[in-house]
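Service request form, structural biology core

Requester: graduate student, group of Dr. S.
Request type: structure prediction, single chain
Budget code: on file
Notes: please return the result as structure tokens.

Sequence provided:
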Amino acid sequence: MPSVRDRVSTLERVLEEYIKNVGNAQMQTERELREFKGEMREFKEEMRAFKDEMREDRKKMYKKWGEIANKMGTVAEDIVAPNIPRIAQEYFGCKELEFFGLRVHKRNVKDRSKSREFDIIAVGDDALIINETKSSPRVDYINEFSEVLKEMYDYFPEYRGKKIIPIFSSLYIPDTVVTYLTKIKIYAKAMKDDAMELLNYERFKQPV
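Core staff response, request fulfilled:
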């Protein structure tokens, strides 16, 4: 029969082996966790790069689409116009439009020597929506549009009393331009994902 000393010695060896095995398993687990974290980090970076690439590709596509449509003279009709009734309903509660017109030519009733063509006019129960469309969202275009808005009732006296809702549309509008449009109280409409949306609707409601 093994002596107490032998049994203790055996127990110590078993315990040492157990600790060694546990330590090796722990080291293996930690190594696998580090490898997994590294793979996840690489995956996230790849996904971020993929999303950035897709975003840039989408911007280029919208720009090219706008250039082609602009050359054909149909950017307002083909791209912007179909979204206006939905925008009017979803954002401004205009369930039905009493008038919707493209390239509306009007003469200024106060100064008959002045006339202007408006890209899109949409009229709801209490709203007069004026949409200006440009393939390139340049600030001088925006400023010109802003000046025209001051005379809207001179061009449309029949809608006096309705709230004027100005929208400047382009396939892509840089955030700096969106900020400027918000500052001068004009809605910015551009492509977002697969549809045109008002980019500054929430900011529009807040002080700039």
